[in-house]
Structure formats: C-alpha cells, structure tokens
Amino acid sequence: MLVVLAGITGTANAAFAQTTTVHTVPFYEDFEGTHTQGDVINTWMQQSEKKSDAWVFNSETDYNREPNSGTWNATLLWGNIDWLFTPVQLEAGKPYRVAMYARQDGTETKDAILQVYLCAEADMNARKTMITETRLTNGNYEYIYEDFTVDSSATYVLGIRGEVGGTPMYISLDDISLVEYKKYSISATPTEHCTITATPEATYPNNTVDVRVTMDRGYILDSLTATPNVSLNWYGQGRHGYFTMPGEDVVLTPHVRPAKSGILDLVDIPDHVSIRTMVNGVEAANHSTIYEGDTLCAEYIPAAGYTVDYDNSCSVVRPYFFVNDTCHWSVPYVEVVFVGTKVGVECTDSATAVVTWNDLGCEYDVIVSDHEIQHFRYQKGIHHTSDTTYTMEGLTAGKTYYAYVCARMEGAEEVWNKAQFVAGQKQESGEGCVLTIDGYDKYKDGWNGGKLHFVENGIETVVAMTEGEEETFTYTTYGGKVDITWTKGDYDDEVSFRITNADGDIVLDMQEGDMTNTPDGTLLWSGNPCSLCPTPKVVEFVTDGTDITMRWRKTDASSYLVALYNGTATDEHFDTVAIRTTDTVYTFHNIDTCRYYAAAIQAQCDEQSASIWITAGEHTPSVPAVMPWQPITLDYHA
Length: 638
Known about the structure:
The radius of gyration is 36 Å and the shape is elongated. The protein folds into 6 domains: about 1-180, Jelly Rolls, CATH 2.60.120; about 185-260; about 260-340, no CATH class; about 345-420, Immunoglobulins (Immunoglobulin-like), CATH 2.60.40.10; about 435-530; about 540-620, Immunoglobulins (Immunoglobulin-like, Sandwich). Strands 1, 2, 4, 5, 7, 10 and 12 form a 7-stranded mixed beta sheet that branches. Strands 3-6-11-8-9-54 form a 6-stranded antiparallel beta sheet, with no helix packed on it. Strands 48, 49, 51, 52 and 53 form a 5-stranded antiparallel beta sheet that branches. It is mostly beta strands and about 650 residues long.
C-alpha cells in the first residue's frame, strides 16, 4: 500500500538544516564507526519526551541487544521516550520506502513501541505525520517498513520515536534505510572466461538477489565487487551467493586471472592399493593436466585380499600445490589391512564337501576339522595347495564341520578364514556367523506370546522373551540364507528388538510399536546375514543454494539408491522415490530452501541383497525473506 503524506509543506527548521547534513535518497544508517559503548548518538539530533536517557551506541549482546549486522546498533533504556531526527530531501510523487530492524528483550508488546514520522521540523511538537507504528516483540529482529510519497518537494525531517515501558530493559534499532521504492537492475561487467547470473535481474530494495558465478576451467575468480558496495554472502567456495538489494542499480564486476596448471603426480601411494583419481567429478589418470581450483578426489582400490579404511580425501587444488609445473599430491594416509580370502563350502553328498575360496594369486593352506581350531602352528592335517578348491571326503552326515583357508601372500600376515557347515546339508557360499538378538519389553513382562523364527536349511529356531525387561540371545547360522519371521503375541506394541551379526552390522532393527499390527508369519528379513551388502558410509552432505550434494565411499555394491526427503519417511517411501546411480556422488537440484532436508542411501549388491537404508541430514537455510507489515491508518498532527 502506497501512502500519500499530505499536510506538511515548506522546509525543515533552517538552523537544524544548516548544522546537520541533509540526506539525499538513498539514505542508510547502520551506526557503524569508531564509538565508545554507551556514548549518546551524535549523528542524529535527539529530543527527550520522558526521562532523560537518550539513544546510545551499543555493541553489547546481553538483553537481546546484539546488532542486526556489523558491530554497532542503537539502544534505548527502559522507562524512556526519546526521539531521533535527521533531515532528508524528498521529491513529490516519487515512491519511497522507509525501513529498519528493531526488537526488545521483554514479553509485553505494549512496553516497546517504535513510531516513524515525517516532520516539518526536528521537534516532537512540530507538525508531523505518522508513517507507521510497531509494537515490538521479543526474539529476532523485526523488519519494519512502510511505503509512502509526499505531495511536495522539500527538505523534511525523518523522526523515529522510541518508547520503552517497564518490562524490557532496551529497545534495539539497526540498519535504517530510506530509498526510492522501485525496481532496480542488476548487471555484470562483461569479463572473458566468467559468467555471472543474477536472479532476478531487477527487483525492489531489500529483496534478495541470488548470484551464481561460472568460470571457464583454467581461470580463477579472485574476487567479485559490487557498485555500490553490498554485502555479498557466499555459500561454500564462493561461486554461489546472495545479497540484499539496495535502493539503486547494482553492477557486479568479477576480477579474473589465469589459473596455475601442471601435471598431476600422485605420491606416497600405500602398498597394495591403487588410486582412482577424479577431477571435478570426472575420472582422470595420473599425470593428467590439472588446474588451480579443480576439485581433486582419490578413491582407494585395495588389492585382492586387502581392505582399507579411509575418509573423504577430496582437495581443492591450491597454487602452492604446484612446483615447476608439476602438482605433487600426497595421497592421504590410509590403513591397509590384509583380510585373506573368502571361504565357501558346497556339500556334494552326505559325506563329501568341496571347499572353495577366492584366488589371490598365491599358495594356500586348507584344513577341514570337526572342531574349531584356535592355534594352527602345530595343527596336523593341513593341506598345502596352489589351487582354489579342496575336496574333503569321509564326513559324517549331519555333523558340524569347520573349513579353514589361509592365503600365503608374501609379506602379509597369517590370516585364517573359516566357513562352518553341516555335512550333507546344502550350503550357500559364505561362512557361518553368530547373530546377536537383543530383545526388549516396555512393561518388563516378556513378549506375551510374540516369537522370532529363524529358518535356515529347513531347520527352524524360535526365540522369545518369557519375562523381564530385556534379554540377549544368540543364533549361529550355517552361512546360507536365513528367513526371519514373526508370530503375533498379546501385547506386540511393547516389543522391540535388534539383530546384529558378528561384525556389528545391523541385520534387523524393530523399534517399539513396529510389531503392533504385524500379522502371524510375516517375513521380516531374508538373506545371508553373515555377508550383508556393505552399508555405504556418507562422507559429505553439503548444500549449495538450491542444490544438495551427497558423497559416499564406494563399496562392493553394483549400484546405489538415493532419496531426498523432508520430515520422516519409511523404507517403503524410499523404495518409491529412490533414484538409482552407479556413482559415489549425487546432487539433488532445485530444492525448497525453506525446509530441513535429509537424504537416504542404500547399497544394492544384487537382486536379493541390499544394505539397510542410512540417512544423512543437514538444515538447508532459506535466504532471509522480507516479511511485510500491514499498513496502518495515518494520523496527521498539526
């Protein structure tokens, strides 16, 4: 609403106008400068209406007095009514907006009142017209504004009246502006190798302008300046940001220089590891040309029989990386561990088992025993071979055996891997393991009929809590597929449990209430719990304006499912909205920047094997928005 202010004519008090700078539009007051805490503000004329305390410079933060921006603001102490005056030159018919940020530290809005007037003189008793009135609330700064015009061109006096009652200690005031309220344009100085996109290209004062900078590879943005000077706020590495539009046109000027370049030389590569390098998300070989500003990532690929544990190892290439046209990049240290070979067993008949293992290109020791072996140094019956299979005959049907294989890799430690099997029963490739079932009951009286069923090789094992608040069970698998089902009890809403394998991986996690409406015989989980599809580890979850990027470590999975969600979501929801990728990074575009978001990821090893869903989350902040205030009826005081 545009308010026409009439009834004030002529020029501001001559003496006041002569001793005080008459401001032209646009006019800004942020109270910054060299001040002493508590000094009376001397850049505006002041007049006391009640008590004697005046508006003062402040940089303290208690009593909700922290400045809205910068180091200083203006505050008025409780029990006082005081005026701030400054002259401004206005032209008839032009649309103006007066705006400021203010807040208090109390709870009563009637005790913290801010009024803005247009006056004929710097005197609270002179002719004046109220522009707006606001009763301040506690908490964050409020953006207070009103649009108006005047019916005659003249020098006016802008008056701000602060009234502090008995509840708050202070009113805080900051970032006052008076601008011609029309759309102003945003443009960029044409510069080779640099593209600047401002959205929108024209807008009103105090609105937010989004800025994106796109550089040609091989060139660096040293800085981006604005005329007039505005506060540019950047996300991440300074290629995407925003600023608040002033009351005049803005020209953005990039300052660009050629980037340093050189040949990539990876150094300090650990033994038993190869490195897959990515430059700006694209695979690049060692000894490729790279440039300052490139994002360089290393993925560790362990040799057969080894594993590595590492965190994200991406770096932005800096000028000091280059020495004599070569970029020497020291690969971050990782721990490389020899884990040996994976063992599997197949029973071809009731008395014969064929032991198989992955080929690591070395020789092997293998032994099949009817008991678990703790020490192998003096163990009899060890068979030495360069093959990757070993057949054991003469077994007793139905008896449990253990197959051990040790890969004799030169320079590697001795690691014996095991597979447990039952003679005569069909086994799937993979060793058995111990599952731990932690059961809980909310009312400490057991599961009241609820049961877990573990079915493997046609053998069913039942687990149930009969009493108490919690109990731990174990179940040893044969190394094959296990079906886990549920039998309904009387008070299933009280039940919760978690199943983990020997590596600590979560096989199944049912929270309190999850079993409430689960029918008898429901299949809760199916697969080999000893060789779960590895859960990917999220190493980066970052926002860049309206984009969210998630990066994770590569696993043995053939692909990954990723999903972005707001609030809460179920596995069924993820299955519906998930996006499949074979990469280890994914960017979600055009998100709503006013919400909190989380992302979920699941590894897909094959059609029957997938990891659990894991999530990563981060608040995605919105760019501060202008919240309009309702206009009020203006009273003219002669």
